[in-house]
Design a protein that fits this description.
Layout: H1 3-14, E1 19-24, H2 29-39, E2 50-56, H3 64-67, H4 70-81, E3 84-85, H5 89-93, E4 98-101, H6 109-118, E5 123-125, H7 133-146, E6 150-151, H8 160-165, E7 172-178, H9 194-204, E8 208-215, E9 219-226, E10 231-237, E11 244-248, E12 253-255, H10 264-277, H11 284-302, E13 308-309
Parallel strand pairs: 1-2, 1-4, 2-3, 4-5, 5-6, 7-10
Antiparallel strand pairs: 7-11, 8-9, 8-13, 9-10, 11-12
Length: about 300
C-alpha cells in the first residue's frame, strides 16, 4: 500500500474514527447487507470501524439478476442510509478511504478495480474475483504494481461450521453447495460454485496439482489431487442446494451440521480488519490457485473428464 494512504488509515483507526467506505456496484444483495451491517449502530450484527458513505451504481444490463436489482438497492442505500452516489468510480474514490467492489458480474471486475488501484484505495473484491483465470492474474498483477492491497472471499469461508472443521490434520474433504451457472462468464464455476470451492480450500489449504471434472445437467463433481497425496472433492448442485462438508482425518470423519448456516457479519469483520491494516486475511496466491483449480476443471470437462494439471 502507498505509505501515505496507509498512514491515513492507521491514523483513522488510532483515533477511533470510522473509515469512509465506498461501494462500487449496487446490483447484489451484498451491497445492501454490508451497508446495513456497517451503518446500523443498533443492528445485532453491527460491525464497527467503517461506514459506507459513497457508492456508484454500476450494473450489467445483459444479466437479469443485475439489471433487476441495481436501482432498487441503490435507492435503499440513498434513502435509508444517506449514501452519496457518484457518476463514476474515480470520483467516488476521491471521497472515501477504501472500496468494496460489489458488482455482481465477474466480467467487469478487472476494469473497475483498475480504477480503484489507480486511486490507491484498499479494496475488497466480492466473489467472483474475475470471470477468468487471466482476469484474476491481471488483477493480482495490477494490485502489486500499484502497491494496493486487495482480497476476495466468499462469506462461507468464515462460517462457524467451516472454521470448526479447519485442522492441519485434515486428510481429505468433500464439500458441496449450489452450482448454477451464467453463460456469459468465461469460467462457469466462478458464478456460484466458487462458494463450495472456497469451503474446500479453507479446509484443505493450497497445493492442488491436478483436477478431474464430471458434469451432468444436475451437478458437477470436481476431484482435486493435492501435492501431498490428499484428495479434495467439490459437488456443485443445480439449480440450488444447501452447503456442507465432510472432513476425513486419520481416526475421525466429521460432518457439518445438517443446517449449515453462514453470517455476513463474520466476513464483514474480516473486511474491516483488512481495511484498517492492509493485511489480506486470504493470501492473494490462494485466491489465484482457486481460479487455477476452476480453470483446470473447465479444461477437464472439455476433454471429456481427463485429468488436467493446474497451470
Amino acid at each position: 500500500m502507498r505509505l501515505f494512504t496507509f498512514l491515513l488509515l492507521l491514523a483513522a483507526a488510532a483515533c477511533g474514527a470510522d473509515l469512509r467506505v465506498g461501494i462500487a456496484g449496487t446490483d447484489t444483495s451484498h451491497a445492501r447487507e454490508f451497508t446495513r451491517i456497517l451503518n446500523d449502530l443498533n443492528a445485532k450484527d453491527h460491525v464497527a470501524g467503517a461506514r459506507v458513505v459513497a457508492a456508484w451504481e454500476g450494473g450489467s444490463p445483459d444479466i437479469e439478476e443485475s439489471a433487476s436489482r441495481r436501482d432498487k438497492i441503490a435507492a435503499e442505500l440513498r434513502d435509508q442510509w444517506h449514501v452519496t452516489f457518484y457518476p463514476d468510480i474515480a470520483t467516488m474514490c476521491k471521497n472515501v478511504d477504501a472500496v468494496l467492489l460489489e458488482s455482481l458480474d465477474g466480467r467487469v471486475h478487472l476494469e473497475q478495480v483498475r480504477q480503484i488501484f489507480a486511486a490507491h484505495k484498499p479494496v475488497f473484491i466480492d466473489k467472483p474475483l474475475s470471470d477468468s483465470l487471466a482476469g484474476a492474474r491481471e488483477i493480482a498483477r495490477l494490485g502489486k504494481e500499484n502497491g494496493v492491497p486487495w482480497f476476495s472471499s466468499s462469506s462461507l469461508r468464515y462460517a462457524n461450521w467451516v472454521q470448526d472443521l479447519r485442522n492441519p490434520g485434515n486428510l481429505g474433504v468433500m464439500a458441496w453447495g449450489p452450482g448454477p451457472q451464467n453463460p456469459l462468464q468465461n469460467l462457469d464455476l466462478s458464478w456460484y460454485a466458487i462458494h463450495p470451492i472456497e469451503v474446500l480450500y479453507t479446509l484443505m489449504g493450497p497445493g492442488c496439482t491436478e483436477v478431474t471434472r464430471t458434469s451432468t445437467p444436475e451437478a458437477d463433481v470436481i476431484v482435486g489431487k493435492w501435492n501431498n497425496g490428499r484428495i479434495g472433492t467439490v459437488r456443485a448442485i443445480r439449480p440450488y442446494s444447501g452447503y456442507g462438508a465432510v472432513v476425513f482425518r486419520s481416526k475421525q470423519i466429521l460432518q457439518s451440521p445438517e443446517k449449515a448456516e453462514f453470517s455476513y457479519k463474520l466476513l464483514v469483520e474480516r473486511i474491516v480488519q483488512f481495511l484498517q491494516t492492509g493485511q489480506p486475511p486470504v493470501p492473494n496466491d490462494v485466491t489465484l490457485e482457486m481460479f487455477e483449480f476452476m480453470d483446470a476443471a473447465q479444461r477437464s470437462e472439455k476433454s471429456g473428464g481427463q485429468p488436467v494439471k493446474l497451470r
